[in-house]
Design brief:
Layout lengths: L7 E6 L5 E6 L7 E7 L1 H11 L8 E4 L4 E7 L11 H4 L1 H5 L2 E7 L2 E4 L12 E7 H11 L3
Antiparallel strand pairs: 1-2, 2-3, 4-5, 5-8, 6-7, 6-8
Protein name: TrkA C-terminal domain-containing protein
InterPro entries: AAE_transporter, KhtT, KhtT-like_N, RCK_C, RCK_C_sf
Pfam families: KhtT_N (PF25991), TrkA_C (PF02080)
Length: 142
């Protein structure tokens, strides 16, 4: 495979599920610059990170328990911009929890219902896939 940046990559899949990923030099596409061998479990983790089941680029993680964590950015035009987190009633309405807020270079863990939201905030939401999607729909309201 050749990337948009003209980098050549190869992936060799073994029968046991492991993979070897190799990146080749730009000047000499036959010279390997880096090669990484991944176990079957590591390969699956990379596959899940690159193409999660529900195709969300904001997915942080998934688990066998059916929980997901996503980053949801609050628009400056969102209904909740400038309002209290508790006003959203996210947990009551969806079962999902906002466990942290990223604001500029600051992380605010476990925001309380009295936390005032601002456009550009990135909310870390954890719950079932359905709950997180419902929370995103609420947070994206104009």
């Amino acid at each position: 495979m050749t990337t948009r940046e003209r980098r050549c990559l190869s992936v060799v899949a073994q029968r046991d599920g492991s993979r070897t990923i190799t990146a080749y030099g730009q000047d000499d596409p036959d010279a390997a610059e880096m090669s990484v061998h991944l176990t079957a479990g590591e390969s699956q983790a990379l596959i899940d990170a690159l193409a999660p089941d529900h195709h969300s680029p904001s997915l942080l993680s998934g688990s066998d328990l059916g929980l997901v964590a996503e980053r949801i950015e609050l628009s400056g035009t969102a209904r909740w911009n400038g309002r209290l987190l508790g006003d959203t009633q996210i947990r009551t309405r969806t079962g999902a929890s906002i466990v942290a807020v990223m604001r500029r270079a600051e992380a605010i863990p476990s925001p309380t219902p009295a936390f005032r939201l601002a456009g550009g905030d990135i909310l870390i939401v954890i719950g079932t896939r359905e709950g997180v999607e419902a929370a995103a729909a609420i947070l994206e309201q104009d």
